Amino acid sequence: xxxxxxxxxxxxxxxxxxxxxxxxxxxxxxxxxxxxxxxxxxxxxxxxxxxxxxxxxxxxxxxxxxxxxxxxxxxxxxxxxxxxxxxxxxxxxxxxxxxxxxxxxxxxxxxxxxxxxxxxxxxxxxxxxxxxxxxxxxxxxxxxxxxxxxxxxxxxxxxxxxxxxxxxxxxxxxxxxxxxxxxxxxxxxxxxxxxxxxxxxxxxxxxxxxxxxxxxxxxxxxxxxxxxxxxxxxxxxxxxxxxxxxxxxxxxxxxxxxxxxxxxxxxxxxxxxxxxxxxxxxxxxxxxxxxxxxxxxxxxxxxxxxxxxxxxxxxxxxxxxxxxxxxxxxxxxxxxxxxxxxxxxxxxxxxxxxxxxxxxxxxxxxxxxxxxxxxxxxxxxxxxxxxxxxxxxxxxxxxxxxxxxxxxxxxxxxxxxxxxxxxxxxxxxxxxxxxxxxxxxxxxxxxxxxxxxxxxxxxxxxxxxxxxxxxxxxxxxxxxxxxxxxxxxxxxxxxxxxxxxxxxxxxxxxxxxxxxxxxxxxxxxxxxxxxxxxxxxxxxxxxxxxxxxxxxxxxxxxxxxxxxxxxxxxxxxxxxxxxxxxxxxxxxxxxxxxxxxxxxxxxxxxxxxxxxxxxxxxxxxxxxxxxxxxxxxxxxxxxxxxxxxxxxxxxxxxxxxxxxxxxxxxxx
Length: 668
Hints:
One of its GO terms (cellular component) is lateral plasma membrane. This is Tubulin-specific chaperone D. Belongs to the TBCD family. Among the domains are: about 1-125, no CATH class; about 575-665. The mean pLDDT is about 95. The chain contains 31 helices and no strands. By secondary structure, it is mainly α.
């Protein structure tokens, strides 16, 4: 009995419950403050000790706790706490100022919600002095230049949060000059993103965009539900113009800002906004590394579509409709092909991830409103690109693609139309396993995704994705993707037409990606493994089968004038694998390998000799018995890293023994 409600409190605030900081501040504190003896002391503790804490996370949690506790002591909050916080919000100590601004925002919002729930005026709990104090915070910080420097990294998102909460609270500030000041701060914060640390950038951007949405919805709409034409023109034109700013972060900020605009500001300006965002997604030589701005533009396009809604026969200036749906999908599908890399790695992955999410959001929007706007061709492209991403090597993006793929496949309110091979897909990916399938795990993902090779609509894209995985460098991805591919190849060995069809698609993938290092190098590695695993044994007995002939010409073209060691070494394995095929091509393969035996790079010469030796051991019948021993001796005993004239003489001996024309030096 020493502590009031001690047993109840100990039960709620046990050792494990208080171990979670968020739970402690947002749930347990509210429960304990519910006992009258603890309400005021809890509030005082948060205000006196926690909103000025050195850790910003604690400060933010403390202000949210104050929001949650406000309904238990609204009068105390309004008459004692808020007047105490207002001077602190413009004080000299940075941490206290930051915490006090956020606390003012949270308490004000909670008081206004409480007043509205009780059918009272939103200003019921506020004195004139408090309302004036809330308006003065931004002006005071601005006049003292407290938005600059490192302090500004804390002040900007804090005041943007204040703007958002005051707007959501429906404060009676319509027409007040403070609105212009708030709009200036939001715009300036979006332009300021290049000047802040990367850690603060995302926080400032999200706070400013949230504040903009709330500000517009509350203060820029008239009684008829429309925007002031002059204000709309100024805001939209200014934001679209900033999308072509030379600074990437400014493009990011204004892309997201356009995505947050309410419908009444987009009405009549939809094409201007969509075209501005589309231009941000286009890769040009000057902004090839601007992956973050392309990502944010794609996210914004989906947000804009969701905001304006769908109306098939509506105006393209107001709705997603027949006249603009193809343009929207064209932009989003282009994003899935972004494979830009720089010093940060595969930055195009951010763009592809955003494009996949946006495709899903726009597609589900159309399906639920007017499914006839979704054409069979577009639906096929979406599913095929998702299947390709789900077969690729980076776990995070593969998992995201797989999740989006299954969401679209199993959506049934109503079902997405025109999905190719729907019945087969539902057998491969049953609805019961959609939640449990771990796309991050190569051992689970690849055995499923390779089954799509048997579906003609998906074969090309899945094979393209698999090429990068099977020929990649990550051991687990390589092992499981290769094993799944070889298992599939074993299943179709007896089916001539299936194998021919597969090989035709494989050659098309190679031809479409000639000199595209991202695909062609791992593709050569994959082909080397497939030839070594006997995936094309059915064709080895056929004279001059078109598959090896075409494959040889593509490999030859791929390495022409190449100085890429990895590509050259991968091609050697393919050329050696082609020796097993019958016909006139075999002499050309040997000629190509003999060229590589005198390559300017010693490592290429050595690798060629080593792999050719192993291949001839395996397929000894390709040599005449009389010369076999000499050929093998030259390949094994020669120092292929010696000077070129010495190496060339030994190579020419091989040519003579095997009756292959000697390569001739081309005069420069």
